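Just scan this pair:

***
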Amino acid sequence: MSASHTGHGIVSVLAGVLLAGTALAAPAVAADHPAGTGPASYTAQTDQAAAAVVYRGRVIAHPAINVRKTPNTKYKPIRSIPYGTVVDIKCKTNGEVVDGNPRWYLLKNGGWVSARYVENINGIPPWC
């Protein structure tokens, strides 16, 4: 077999692979393809699902945890929640460091609590 014949065969094979790859990379979409089922829709659905998750935590502060207007202890508490109460958490942020922990949780019904005194029940909430 000659060198030019071998080179021609490789070029033909590479051209076939490139053409096949192009066909696989850009498939045609049927006219009756349902809207909202592609990759962008998947991202929107997963974002909605993440937002729908209710993160919960149990108060481990004795006798209660103070709920504050901001994620720090500079102002008076706006209310308190008794030890053992399960709270719904919206998200977390960094704030004043409390007993070595800078995280604070924003409660679904308003107000901030130090994460130091909340035991997570079903995962860690997302960042605010």
Remarks:
- The CA atoms of residues 89 and 107 lie 4 Å apart.
- The longest strand covers residues 86-98.
- DSSP finds two helices and seven strands in the chain.
